[in-house]
Write a structure and sequence with these properties.
Elements: H1 3-25, E1 35-42, H2 47-50, E2 59-67, E3 74-76, E4 83-86, E5 90-95, E6 98-102, E7 108-109, E8 115-116, E9 122-126, E10 140-141, E11 156-164, E12 185-192, E13 198-209, E14 218-220, E15 226-229, E16 240-243, E17 246-253, E18 258-261, E19 269-272, E20 276-277, E21 280-290, E22 293-294, E23 303-307, E24 313-315, E25 320-325, E26 333-338, E27 343-345, E28 350-356, E29 364-369, E30 374-379, E31 384-390, E32 392-394, E33 402-404, E34 408-410, E35 419-421, E36 430-433, E37 435-437, H3 443-475
Parallel strand pairs: 11-26, 11-27
Antiparallel strand pairs: 1-2, 3-37, 4-36, 5-6, 5-9, 5-32, 6-34, 7-8, 9-10, 9-31, 11-28, 12-13, 13-21, 14-15, 14-19, 15-18, 16-17, 16-20, 17-18, 21-22, 21-23, 23-24, 25-26, 29-30, 30-31, 32-35, 33-34
Helix pairs in contact: 1-3
């Protein structure tokens, strides 16, 4: 009789409805993976069957309830601690030493700084050393620290400058940071000492006059306004030359060795060595002050920047200089200043780049997780520091995982061992911070499946009813 088939069909349809109902119930569960009831037929093992006879089956059964690990939609949240997996992999969760696996990335910090889910299970990954380097050891619970970031004293300063080739020699050759006539240009940067205190460092640039020795000797005839020099290289109209106790201003350069002056010589002289000139050179004395105090004190040039006729820096060959000072109450420090890339062209003075590598102490403001799983802390001083790295686990047979409550799975012999790695490595997916992975349940499809399962249940019930009617007919035979 067909009661067996109908009963098995009712049982299978009921379990199918259970799976569908569970999918529908978890349509809004973050990281949930829908299940699918997979049917198998049943045949009795009889002598007739072994002889090749054709038999009606004895019904249907549920072979397995298989979870479908397809990707769910990723939705942005307002919690920077939330993380979504885009691709393959599971989070490793620690529950007092017991490891489970999850796709639910709704995380938060507990009172001890551990990253936990809403059930208190701890997210695992790689720790960092005090400098923020990832330690790829055995994964363990990730713990964030809210400790302030220690300050870093400035060591290196970089300055990319554009000097003005048309700048004059300052009227006061004795440098004084309070006297703007003693330098051409300046720029400043904030540097930090070992306590994180800020100091204003200022660089000053003073155009140098052409050395009088480069002019050779000078001669002039009485009443003449023509001066003969050993060389006129570097001279320009408007420059003045002091020779034989008198200053002469150049009105024209007539050849490689003669210039015309605006005044004539009262008496003939020469050859004599000029004693001064306002002709400019391609050299700039560079001075430094920290909080207004010259370094070194008394004020002396730290270095001289010299440019060639193409406007590029030629000296110092290694365009760096060091300046030592001792901040009040802090460790003595030395600044290394690098002028590489500085130029001298026919444009106004400009600062193309200016930087330094120190910072003050910082308070942790936020935590973000990169696509590669590295957790980065951002501090109030603008610095960042690695605080750990999330790891993921994959399995040769994820269908072999044992489902548990609270969006957790455990590994089994059927799933194989967990293959642990960082996001983006091997077959593992990437992470997306401030987001979660939605359930992969297609609610519309599940409602259609529910209608189909309902019809199957009704049809199986109808076979039992028909068999009952047939039996009743046989009983009523006389």
């Amino acid at each position: 009789m067909g009661f067996q088939q109908g009963l098995s069909g009712l049982s299978a349809a009921t379990k199918n409805l259970d799976a569908i109902g569970n999918n529908v119930a978890n349509a809004n569960t973050v990281g949930f993976k829908q299940s699918q009831a997979q049917f198998s037929d049943i045949y009795a093992n009889t002598l007739a069957a072994s002889g090749g006879g054709v038999l009606a089956g004895t019904g249907a059964s549920i072979a397995t309830i298989a979870q479908q690990f397809s990707q769910g939609n990723i939705t942005a949240t307002n919690n920077s601690m939330d993380i979504a997996i885009s691709g393959n992999g599971f989070y490793r969760m620690d529950n007092n030493g017991v490891t489970s696996y999850s796709r639910n990335g709704q995380f938060q910090l507990d009172k001890n700084g551990f990253i936990v889910d809403n059930k208190g299970l701890k997210l695992t990954g790689y720790p960092v050393d005090p400098l923020g380097a990832i330690l790829t050891s055995t994964p363990g619970p990730l713990q964030m620290t809210a400790a302030m970031l220690a300050p870093k004293a400035t060591v290196n300063v970089t300055a990319g400058l554009s000097m003005n080739s048309n700048a004059p020699v300052p009227t006061n050759p004795a440098f004084n940071p309070l006297d703007p006539t003693s330098y051409n240009n300046s720029t400043s940067a904030t540097v930090y000492d070992s306590l994180g205190n800020a100091h204003i460092s200022a660089l000053y640039f003073q155009r140098q006059a052409m050395p009088v020795a480069s002019l050779g000797t000078a001669t002039m005839a009485a009443g003449s306004n023509v001066m003969t020099l050993g060389s006129t290289i570097g001279l320009a109209v408007g420059n003045s030359i002091t020779a034989n106790g008198t200053t002469y201003t150049i009105s024209a350069i007539t050849s490689g060795t003669t210039v015309t002056t605006t005044a004539a010589a009262a008496a003939a002289f020469g050859p004599v060595a000029p004693t001064a000139t306002t002709a400019v050179s391609s050299s700039w004395n560079t001075y430094l002050t920290v909080d207004g105090t010259p370094v070194p004190a008394p004020a002396a040039p730290l270095t001289t920047l010299t440019f060639n006729t193409n406007g590029t820096l030629v000296t110092p060959v290694a365009p760096t200089l060091s300046a030592a000072f001792t901040p009040t109450g802090a460790v003595a420090q030395s600044l290394t200043i690098d002028f590489a890339g500085s130029t001298q062209y026919g444009t106004s003075f400009g600062v193309n780049s200016l930087g330094q590598d120190g910072y003050t102490t910082g308070q942790l403001n936020s935590i973000n997780t990169g696509a590669d799983g590295i957790i980065v802390g951002r501090y109030s001083n603008g610095q960042t520091k690695n605080m750990g790295q999330v790891v993921l686990a994959s399995f040769s047979n994820p269908q072999g995982l044992q489902a548990m409550s609270n969006n957790q799975w455990t590994s089994t012999s059927a799933s194989g061992l967990a293959l642990v790695g960082v996001p983006g490595s091997s077959t593992l997916g990437l992470l997306q911070s401030g987001s979660v992975e939605d359930s992969n349940v297609d609610l519309t499809a599940e409602l259609v499946n529910m209608i189909t399962a309902q019809r199957s249940y009704q049809a199986n019930a109808q076979t039992i009813k028909t068999q009952d009617q047939l039996m009743q007919t046989m009983i009523n035979l006389r």
